[in-house]
Amino acid sequence: MAAFNIACEAPDSGPTPRPSGDRPIDLVHLAKQTGGDKNLEAEVLTIFAKQIRKAVHELPGLSGNAQVRLAHTIAGSAKGVGAFEVARTAEAIENKPGQARLLTAFTKAVVSVDSFIIGLNR
User: Fold this and answer.
1) I want to staple 83 with a disulfide (CB 3.0 to 4.6 A). Which of 20, 60, 78, 99 is the partner?
2) Residue 7 has what pLDDT?
3) Domain 20-120 - what CATH class?
4) In the chain, where are the structural domains located?
5) What's the pLDDT tens digit per position in 30-63?
6) CA-CA distances (angstroms) from residue 9 to 21, 60, 72, 106, 119?
7) What is the Cα–Cα distance from 34 to 36, expressed in whole angstroms?
8) Percent of the chain that is helix, strand, coil (3-state, to 5)
């Protein structure tokens, strides 16, 4: 349950600065969120990866308010784990739902984060 709470909580600070540079996930931020517990980090990232993969498939089929709600949820989760580009693109969808170019940007950010998580687990 602790992993789910961390994955769904937004951080206290904004997405900048990025101590981890241009990585798809700010690992320094994630370590702060998990107290440096590597097992918890792995669990949180696994939950987050499942959540964003599902969202990529669901968002295009949702209308207005449903799309806004899911985008809002994903933005908060992404901020919690340090996936700030996913958060930024989800917030864009939240503010302007139904735009194909925003869904494309979101999908691109998700693929980048998902690939990064897969690389960490090797």
Assistant:
1) 78
2) 47
3) mainly alpha
4) 20-120
5) 999 999 999 999 999 999 999 999 999 999 999 9
6) 22, 24, 12, 19, 24
7) 5
8) 75, 0, 25
